[in-house]
Amino acid sequence: MTAVQRIVIENCSIATVDADDTEYASGHVVIAGNRIESLGAGRAPEGLQDVVRRIDATGHLVTPGLVNTHHHYYQWITRGLATDHNLFNWLVALYPTWARIDEEMVYAAAQGSLAMMARGGVTTAMDHHYVFPAGSGDLSGAIIRAARETGVRFTLARGSMDRSEKDGGLPPDFAVETLEGALAATEATVKEHHDSSFDAMTQVAVAPCSPFSVSTELLREGAELARRLGVRLHTHGSETVEEEQFCKELFGMGPTDYFESTGWLGEDVWMAHCVHMNDSDIAAFARTKTGVAHCPSSNARLAAGIARVPDMLAAGVPVGLGVDGTASNESGELHTELRNALLINRLGAHREAALNARQALRLGTYGGAQVLGRAAETGSLEAGKLADLVLWKLDTLAHASIADPVTALVLGAAAPVTASFVNGRQIVENGRLSHVDEDAVARSTREQAQRLARIAAQG
Questions:
Q1: Side by side, which strands form the sheet with 66-67?
Q2: Which of 160, 163, 319, 417 reaches 20 to 30 Å from 431, CA-CA?
Q3: Predicted confidence band at 343 (pLDDT cuts at 50, 70, 90)?
Q4: What is the rounded distance in angstroms from the CA atom of residue 106 to the CA atom of residue 123?
Q5: What separation in angstroms does the CA of 410 have from each of 58, 120, 392?
Q6: pTM, full prediction
Q7: CB 57 within 8 A of CB 426
Q8: Does the pLDDT value for residue 263 go beyond 70?
Q9: CB 124 within 8 A of CB 374
Q10: How many CA atoms lie within 13 A of 272 on its CB side?
């Protein structure tokens, strides 16, 4: 029988983000295989067997790895466009270009998106991909391959659209699927790629895009499909006032009531944005334990508004953080969303009482794991959980005079990541990806962005 190899991390501050928000000013973490074996104050126990590496983490804060709950990787190759548009005008401007993507472009864009997140502390990522032009290749397979190569834990939200311009939707006619085609392709993706095991590296969710780009039938049958297959459901919801008007005009009800009528509220569902939610909407999400992916930078970039995150949390709604697509959050980073979530929510009705630094960290870790249905496995540092964790360097000039490490991480400058582990395997070392050539990814994404621009210009 092969012995379990151990990695010992010592002399670090630790924020566990467990149920009691346990923290250690100076402590240790022991990784055994792909699990956290133990952690606590002071140095690791003496006499540990099969220790293959000891890390002196003096000057570092160790936290759970960050969990991204909403993204669109393909948008990496259309960054910096339509920078002064609201959501609907931005979609109208970019859909004709997005409709020209192919497998090579999507793979490169996924590499770029994943690289930026991973080097910034993300250990569990997701992608909501919903643009599948005819003849574009195996887009889902390309995204999953990029995630596997980067080394992150990953959820593919297999999206779909069947309401095009001719049906009153926004996407070009040739960029959507049929109802039957979307459902069949989604089911095939789940059956090929979804892993339901405790330490799964790849999972799949059913994810029709949004009320204004999918039919009621696709929403309803998509929910039925997800529950038959035992996977989660994801979509966009209540992002803008225009969406609310659209739902009332077309369906005679607001977005939340519409979603409930189609089977889209429940503890197996999470929605992106949820900016325009009234008290009744929040109560419905709380009652059904429907999750929310809060994307503060994208909401600000597209002038969508400020989500009522403090009210959601007070009601018991599961809330995580999302980067959102890099065409509406050009940084492509999640660790900066900790700070943005705190600051933007303090501009709302609750002002300085909206969020504190530890709540922001919880949104980006345990909250995200809840939203993705993986809180039993990751999202906090506890014995028996998967070894997904990050070492943030906080002893440089940028954080030197901030005594509290969690405050330094959330409110200070973006902290360097010295090391990041997923499933006990190191994927970042001294701020660089361990298994991916970042310079090659940069070249590839630049080339594919230029190629897409040329193809789109030709019409």
A1: 66-67, 122-129, 153-160, 202-208, 233-237, 269-273, 291-294, 319-321
A2: 319
A3: very high
A4: 21
A5: 19, 13, 11
A6: 0.97
A7: no
A8: yes
A9: yes
A10: 28
